[in-house]
Amino acid sequence: MVLTAFLVGLVLVVVGLFVVVVRGLALWKQGKRSGKAITSELELFEERSARTEQLLVEAERAQAELHAATERLRVSRDIPV
Asked: Does the residue 42 lie in any domain?
């Protein structure tokens, strides 16, 4: 009777360990996939941020050129401010 209970308990422990190992491996694989997805999204975000920064610099330069051209026009037409 005691031996049967011990064997049943041992089988349940082994099955429990198997379930824990299988789920742990699944969690590890999911973590790897999630990490890759997050990394690729962060790289895409960095690329877009760099492009936005470049466009802002170009816009500031164009604004400065426009301001200079407006000032030259004002001086050439001798329009008081």
From this structure: yes
